[in-house]
């Protein structure tokens, strides 16, 4: 990765609800148009053990089992993006955890509107299309969980990198 105090790599995942709603292209374009550089991408089926490991920090919460069920209910798209301040910029583009409160213009705000109370009446977990690392520590840990070194492309620059 580039030597820079601002440049970061982050992990993003389009969850099964996003894949099943055929929003993969739409979601990818949100990150592309904001100037992030795609450095890793794969479509994968997730087993229970991997889903539990990914969401280990939420073990014990009421929505943990439904969350694992949701993540294993279909394929996910695992993505690695790079960019200046990529971790916080991606979280801004993704929007707040509860889609009902997520800002319009964010992915969660534009493509879903599920609330916590409504999720209790439905899947027992909030389906909010997408996951994104929330800190440098979680980005490093999640990238290592989902990608091996050989799965990243050779470094390249976007043609518009001077403006990003
Ligand atoms: P994040 O995805 O915005 O980082 P986290 O708090 O890390 O949010 O939670 C992981 C996922 O678990 C959320 O994306 C959502 O699918 C689900 N979730 C989180 N909190 C709740 C809740 O209170 N009720 C139902 N589902 C939840
Ligand atoms: Mg999280």
Can I get a quick summary?
This protein has 164 residues and is an alpha+beta fold.
Task: Give structural notes.
Helices cover 37% and strands 17% of the residues. By secondary structure, the protein is of the alpha+beta class. It has a single domain (7-147), classed as Alpha-Beta Plaits. The chain has a four-stranded antiparallel beta sheet. The protein is globular, with a radius of gyration of 16 Å. The protein starts with 6 loop residues before the first strand and ends in an 18-residue tail after the last helix.
Major beta-sheet overview: 4 strands, antiparallel
Estimated share of beta-strand residues: 15-25%
Mean pLDDT: 97
Unreliable runs, pLDDT <50, ≥5 residues?
none
Order of strands across the biggest sheet?
2-3-1-4
Write down the CATH class.
Alpha Beta
- CATH A-level architecture: 2-Layer Sandwich
How many helices? The count is 8
- For this structure, the CATH topology is Alpha-Beta Plaits
SSE ordering: EHHEHHEHHHEH
What is the count of distinct domains?
A: 1
Unique ligands = inosine-5'-diphosphate, magnesium ion
Topology:
Elements: E1 7-14, H1 16-20, H2 24-33, E2 37-44, H3 48-54, H4 64-71, E3 76-84, H5 86-94, H6 107-111, H7 116-121, E4 130-132, H8 136-146
Residues 58, 63, 67, 97, 116, 119, 125-126, 128, 131, 134 line the site of inosine-5'-diphosphate (IDP).
Q: What distinguishing features does this structure have?
A:
164 residues, binds magnesium ion, Alpha-Beta Plaits, 17% strand, alpha+beta, binds inosine-5'-diphosphate
């Amino acid at each position: 990765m580039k030597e820079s105090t601002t440049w970061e790599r982050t992990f993003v995942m389009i969850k099964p609800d996003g894949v099943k709603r055929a929003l993969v292209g739409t979601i990818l374009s949100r990150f592309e148009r904001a100037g992030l550089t795609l450095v890793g991408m794969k479509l994968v089926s997730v087993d229970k053990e991997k889903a539990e490991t990914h969401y280990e920090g939420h073990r014990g919460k009421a929505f943990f089992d439904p969350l694992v069920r949701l993540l294993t209910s279909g394929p996910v798209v695992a993505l690695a993006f790079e960019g200046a301040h990529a971790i916080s910029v991606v979280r801004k583009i993704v929007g707040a955890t509860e889609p009902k409160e997520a800002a319009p213009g964010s992915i969660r705000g534009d493509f879903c509107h599920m609330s916590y109370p409504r999720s209790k009446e439905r899947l027992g977990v909030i389906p909010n299309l997408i996951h994104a690392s929330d800190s440098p520590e979680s980005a490093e840990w999640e990238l290592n969980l989902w990608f091996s070194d050989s799965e990243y492309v050779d470094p390249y620059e976007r043609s518009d990198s001077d403006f990003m």
